[in-house]
Design goal:
single chain, about 300 residues, alpha/beta, TIM Barrel, eight-stranded parallel beta barrel, 10 strands, about 35% helix, globular, disordered N terminus, binds 2-acetamido-2-deoxy-beta-D-glucopyranose, glycosidase, Glyco_hydro_18_chit_AS, Glyco_hydro18_cat, hydrolase, disulfide bond
């Protein structure tokens, strides 16, 4: 018996529904970002090993923590290298090997301690020029690129000092350089604290040039997970995911171990996967995945390994 037209069309509808559901599941697969570079005694291992672990889609090199206001920009990668004597250039080949394995490598600006600020729109533009020529697609006249020739995939803003003035101008200046570089350009990302709006990055985020915003849901008691209570986290998540301009994806930034966040926010991996992530994903179409602070604690905690393929 030939199938009736009605049955036939319901089969097609079923197939379409199935494919759409499959596509939704695939596009809903989150990514994982991690910070590397601040391990005590290099206990975070090498950049190459971090990428080769296969656990992360993005690695933020932490930090360029001196820049702006006339200062000579400076990297602080804890014990990994010393920019002054040129030893950080050894990371160039590791950056390339990360990129060959599909991991995006970014330079993170700022951090909790350092000496950075922007004094004017001109200062912001000159820092953008410096970053472009020394870490991205440009080239420096004297070939003094601190991390060598490898061009990073982008710049991350982890601004935690000062009053936030001129970071919108820095973001815009970087964006125009990156887009001028052609298809692909470079990534601009931001790591605000979870209280909304962020004290330092609000204007920069509102420019709409960031593609990934990883919000720090730790060391912020007013909006982090607290001993089984996710209500403050969920309220802040809704605020952030509603406010961040499209097309940016918003990431849930979490510590890899309790010691990584002295003021709290740690969520054990089982609770994260079974309770918190389902709620967070269900609340926002612009969920992008999870950001982890940091690789140092993850080496021993194995937190990223528990999340692999499940965020
Ligand atoms: C911070 O940088 C300024 C120059 O922009 C410099 O005068 C000052 O000494 C620096 N402070 C520290 C603590 O490094
Ligand atoms: C820039 O540096 C000067 C001199 O060190 C200081 O007085 C001023 O407050 C700094 N400006 C910013 C925006 O940090
Ligand atoms: C931000 O800080 C700088 C340097 O301290 C100061 O010159 C500027 O007036 C401040 N801007 C605002 C909006 O507070
Ligand atoms: C959970 O935290 C919220 C504040 O973030 C508080 O109002 C609420 O009472 C807490 N719930 C429990 C069961 O402790």
């Amino acid at each position: 018996m030939a199938p009736s037209p009605r049955l036939c069309s319901s089969r097609i509808l079923f197939a379409v529904f199935f494919l759409a559901a499959f596509a939704a599941v695939v596009s809903n697969a989150g990514k994982v970002a991690v910070y590397w570079g601040q391990g005590a005694n290099n206990a975070d291992g090498t950049l190459a090993d971090t990428c080769a672990s296969g656990l992360y889609d993005f690695v933020n090199i932490a930090f360029l923590n001196v820049f702006g206001n006339g200062s000579t920009p400076g990297l602080n990668l804890a014990g990994h290298c010393d920019q002054a004597t040129g030893t950080c250039t050894s990371f160039s080949s590791q950056i390339s090997s990360c990129q060959q394995s599909g991991v995006k490598v970014l330079l993170s600006l700022g951090g909790e301690s350092g000496n950075y600020s922007l004094s004017s729109a001109d200062d912001a533009r000159s820092v953008a020029d410096y970053l472009w020529n020394n870490f991205l697609g440009g080239s420096s006249d004297d070939d003094s690129r601190p991390l060598g020739d490898a061009a990073l995939d982008g710049i991350d803003f982890d601004i935690e000092q000062g009053n936030g003035t001129h970071y919108d101008e820095l973001a815009m200046a970087l964006s125009s350089k990156c887009n001028g570089a052609g298809a692909g350009g470079c990534l601009l990302t931001a790591a605000p604290q979870c209280p909304y709006p962020d004290a330092h990055l609000d204007a920069a985020i509102k420019t709409g040039v960031f593609s990934h915003v990883w919000v720090q849901f730790y060391n912020n008691p007013q909006c982090q997970y607290d001993g089984g209570n996710a209500s403050a986290l969920q309220a802040a998540w809704v605020q952030w995911t509603s406010a961040v301009p499209a097309p940016a994806d918003v990431f849930l930034g979490l510590p890899t171990a309790p010691a990584a966040a002295p003021s709290g926010g740690y969520i054990d991996a089982d609770t994260l996967l079974s309770q918190v992530l389902p709620a967070v994903k269900g609340a926002a179409a612009n969920y992008g995945g999870v950001m982890l602070w940091d690789r140092w604690r993850d080496v021993t905690a194995g937190y990223g390994a528990k999340l692999k393929g499940k965020v």
